[in-house]
Amino acid sequence: MPTWKLHFKSGPSDVYRALSTPGGRSRYWADAPETDGTIHFAFPAGHTTDARIEEAIQDRRYRFTWYTDRTLTFDLIPDDAGGTDLTVTSSTGPHLAGDISVLLRLKAWVDFGVDLRNHDDTRSAGYLDS
CA-to-CA distance for 74 and 20, rounded, in angstroms? Predict the structure, then answer.
């Protein structure tokens, strides 16, 4: 199973909120409201998909399944300086460009308040910053 790790200067509650709330996800990933345990992702250029929330443990773990069979698990561990070590595990093969892009945008938003997306619908397909 592919695994990625990131370190945040921000605490687990800030990272968890960015992963687990519609407002958090919209700041670095996609418009993604949720109803009845399902996240409704709406990506640039009109692509949509739903994700079923499998587990949500405040400030510790967030897991969902999407695209029928792909589960992403986000484990958050506080460090001694008030930051967070995040480990992300995928149940299926790597989707390197997309996964890394989202994780780096997550870090930019949570730690620095910066949205790295280009916000240009004509530059969505094939662009890492869409």
Answer: 10
Coil, helix or strand for 80?
coil
Per residue in 38-67, pLDDT tens?
A: 999 998 778 899 999 999 999 999 999 998
Q: What is the rounded distance in angstroms from the CA atom of residue 118 to the CA atom of residue 42?
A: 16
**Could you state, in chain order, the average pLDDT of each consecutive group of 10 residues for the chain (130 residues)?**
92 98 95 97 88 98 92 97 96 74 94 90 77
**pTM confidence score:** 0.91
55: containing domain: 3-116
Sheet holding 34-35, edge to edge: 3-8, 84-90, 70-78, 61-66, 48-57, 38-42, 34-35
Domain containing 84 — which CATH number?
3.30.530.20
